[in-house]
């Protein structure tokens, strides 16, 4: 199944993607139990995905149909507890980082292996959907694209064994892990608003039995920048889950950005990005300059 979230009539709707058509199954969300403050620190839709999916199947034959083209697509996960990201998780990307001072900025952490430097967290406030686009901050600095296979955790777990790790995946998406180059901590440079793009939808695991053999690519204004396969990852999906959960508990809705291959490059306002992952699809993302906002007094 392919679940998307889209904006219509000033509210978020839930859709089932069927080719070029989306079936509005928002009513399936009614199976989610009511919650009151304080709300849980996980995503309720993902936590109850099996029940929502069953109800969506019942509703789909009678659900309103909308053309996919032109829909304002939101992130398929609304409330992740955390965004976990994997640095230098492709061998050729690790090599290009070591060889290019514009990428490593003499930061010794970037010159080590993922097993040594570990994973990092991005602010959940950086999350956005493809239709909202990317708002570039710090135009005086280099801002780079990084296309990644993203996956979403479906149930809570700690110290999850590698052999069981894929049982904890709710689904897969395309991720754009945007970054401002510089000497600061990577979590700081990768957490501005809109610097974590997730979409265009969530593909449930039965459609992707082997996430370790998926081609992925990105173009900027039609120019191919990155092209690789997830079989080139140093740590695969199961290994990333095992590694992360050995340090902290994973919860439904936690998002993983699994790392990017070689070919990362600079983007600028006015660019159009198209990111593609096999068996998921493609998402088009526009790039613009962030507007200066002054808080009202």
The helical percent reads 10-25%
Question: What portion of the residues fall into strands of 2 or more residues?
Answer: 25-35%
Number of strands: 20
Q: How large is the count of helical segments?
A: 7
**CATH architecture heading of the largest domain:** Alpha-Beta Complex
Low-confidence stretches: none
User: CATH fold name of the largest domain, please?
Assistant: Fumarylacetoacetate hydrolase, domain 2
* Largest β-sheet summary: 12 strands, mixed
Q: What order do the SSEs take from the amino end to the carboxyl end, as H and E?
A: EEEHHEEEHHHEEEEEEEHEEEHEEEE
The radius of gyration computed from the alpha-carbon positions, rounded to a whole number of angstroms, is 19 Å
Shape label: globular
Give the number of domains: 2
Written overview of the protein:
- The strands form 3 sheets. Strands 1, 2, 3, 4, 5, 6, 7, 8, 11, 12, 14 and 17 form a 12-stranded mixed β-sheet that branches. A 5-stranded mixed β-sheet has the order 9-20-19-15-16, with no helix packed on it.
- Helices cover 15% and strands 33% of the residues.
- The chain is globular, with a radius of gyration of 19 Å.
- The protein folds into 2 domains: 2-74, no CATH class; 83-289, Fumarylacetoacetate hydrolase, domain 2, CATH 3.90.850.10.
- The protein has helices at 44-47, 49-59, 91-99, 101-104, 114-117, 186-189, 237-245, and strands at 2-8, 11-18, 21-24, 65-67, 72-74, 83-85, 120-122, 127-128, 134-136, 143-145, 147-153, 169-177, 179-180, 196-203, 215-220, 223-229, 255-257, 265-266, 272-277, 281-289.
- With 297 residues, it is an alpha+beta fold.
């Amino acid at each position: 199944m392919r679940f998307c979230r889209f904006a219509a009539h000033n509210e978020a709707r839930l859709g089932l993607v069927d080719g070029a058509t989306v079936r509005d199954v928002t009513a399936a969300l009614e199976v989610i139990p009511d919650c009151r403050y304080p709300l849980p620190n996980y995503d309720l839709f993902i936590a109850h995905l099996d029940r929502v999916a069953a109800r969506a199947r019942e509703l789909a034959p009678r659900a309103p149909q909308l053309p996919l083209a032109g829909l304002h697509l939101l992130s398929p996960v609304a409330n992740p507890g955390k965004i976990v990201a994997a640095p230098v998780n492709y061998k050729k990307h690790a090599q290009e980082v070591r060889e290019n001072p514009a990428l490593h900025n003499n930061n010794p952490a970037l010159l080590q292996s993922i097993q040594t430097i570990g994973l990092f967290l991005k602010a959940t406030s950086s999350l956005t959907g493809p239709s909202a686009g990317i708002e570039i901050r710090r135009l005086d600095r280099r801002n780079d694209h990084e296309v990644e296979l993203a996956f979403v955790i479906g149930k809570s777990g700690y110290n999850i064994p590698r052999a069981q790790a894929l049982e904890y995946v709710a689904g897969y998406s395309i991720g754009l892990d945007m970054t401002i180059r510089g000497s600061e901590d990577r979590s700081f440079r990768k957490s501005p608003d809109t610097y974590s793009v997730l979409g265009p939808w969530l593909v449930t695991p039965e459609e992707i039995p082997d996430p370790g053999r998926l081609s992925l690519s990105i173009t900027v204004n039609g120019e191919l920048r990155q092209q690789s396969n997830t079989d080139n990852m140093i740590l695969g999906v199961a290994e990333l889950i095992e590694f992360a959960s050995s340090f902290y508990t994973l919860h439904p809705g936690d998002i993983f950005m699994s790392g990017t291959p070689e070919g990362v490059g600079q983007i600028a306002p006015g660019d159009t990005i198209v990111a593609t992952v096999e068996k998921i699809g493609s998402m088009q993302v526009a790039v613009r300059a962030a507007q200066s906002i002054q808080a009202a007094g």
